Amino acid sequence: MMNEALSESQDSGVDDYVAVAIYARTSSKSQQFGYSLNEQVRQCLKQCEVQNWTVRFIYRDEAESGKDIERPMFQKMMAGAERRWFDVILFWKLDRFSRSLMHAVQLESGLREYGVGLFSVTEQIDTTTAAGRFNFRNIASAAEFERDMIQQRTQMGLRALAMDHKWPNDRPPLGYTKLPDERLSIDSEASDLVRAIFESYIEERSMPRVARKLNENRSLTSQGNKWCPRAVGDILRNELYTGQYSVGDVSEYVSEYRIIPDDVFVRATEIRMRFQNRSVPQRQMEPSRKERIVRDVMDTYVEFLKSGQASLTDPKKTI
User: Fold this and answer.
1) What are 235-274's pLDDT values in tens digits?
2) Residue 9 has pLDDT above 70, yes or no
3) Residues with catalytic function
4) Residue 284 has what pLDDT?
5) Cβ atoms < 10 Å from Cβ of 198
6) From which residue to which does the signal peptide run (predicted)?
7) How many domains does the chain have?
8) Are residues 270 and 206 both part of a single domain?
9) Is residue 149 part of a domain?
10) Does any domain span residue 210?
11) Beta-bridge mates of residue 62
């Protein structure tokens, strides 16, 4: 159960008085390895004794998983920091406080504006001193540099792969299989389904109707799921079916990847764009024109009442 415990302590009057908020977070997975909330808090309390700090608040979050970003007590703690209720946020380990080092850097930058520092029991993270802040930023800079290098290597690898017309993941689009050399090969049965989707859409002019027909025939997507209008739209928009291979910054025509003729793809696109344009809000009618139309309609209706006709569309019938 998540809770917040407040320890009432009075300022001792000593100039070096430091008020601390302890933050502990755990998940069912981490508790299996002994990183319980109580153990985290106990380690933090021991650190406060060493530092001669006064514990003012203890915030505890028990999430279902480490990816849980709700963390209600964390949000309360950050609100308390904004009100300057304490000087330091103390935690057992960085991954209990933030989801990543770069996320911690962002949080530290905001907390610094409120005069609140960070301190980790198990790591060399201490932003309560100038030297500690300098060290923390160096660690963060190194992490950012490594991240940029990884991204650069990934982009270089992706470009090399794309130059050989290889597929970058293990999920090729419907109609293809991935060969051992990472290039694509047209699957005869699945490609027939792709052609049928284009033909059906040109005939039906409705993605929901196409999806319904596919599900009635028990056809599945490339991921083994039932069809929905969005999945149909993804097929209709994919230029790879015309042989246009686009991965990263490489865009080239690959004849052996073609499944759909250009004229069929263009026709489906025209129909799709026509329906999209219909959904665009129409320009507002000029007030003077609207007034004139209303006046004409009312004049017509008055004449109708005077004529005694039973119907505006049939002048032969009378009331």
Assistant:
1) 999 999 999 999 988 899 999 999 999 999 999 999 999 8
2) no
3) 36
4) 60
5) 21
6) none
7) 2
8) yes
9) no
10) yes
11) 26
Cα separation, 50 vs 151, whole angstroms: 42
Residues 188 and 251 in one domain: yes
**How many angstroms separate the CA atoms of 118 and 51, rounded?**
14
- Between strands 176-178 and 117-120, the pairing is unpaired
263: containing domain = 176-278
Looking at residue 64, the DSSP 8-state letter turns out to be S
C-alpha span between 241 and 2 (Å, rounded): 52
In angstroms, the CA 86 to CA 55 distance is: 9
**Dihedral of the CA atoms 260, 265, 271, 277 (nearest 10)?**
140
Among 155-159, 213-217, 240-244, name the one with the lowest average pLDDT: 155-159
Hey, what long-range contacts does 257-263 have (CB within 8 A, 24 or more apart)? 257/165, 257/176, 257/184, 257/186, 259/175, 259/186, 259/191, 259/194, 259/195, 260/194, 260/195, 260/198
The answer to whether the beta carbons of residues 77 and 21 sit under 8 Å apart is yes
pLDDT band at 84 (very low <50, low <70, confident <90, very high): very high
Tokens of 288: 């003077």
| CA distances for 64 relative to 1, 70, 78, 93, 244, angstroms | 11, 10, 21, 18, 44
Bridge partners (DSSP) of residue 22 are 58, 90
Token reading at 199: 């033909």
Residues 77 and 191 in one domain: no
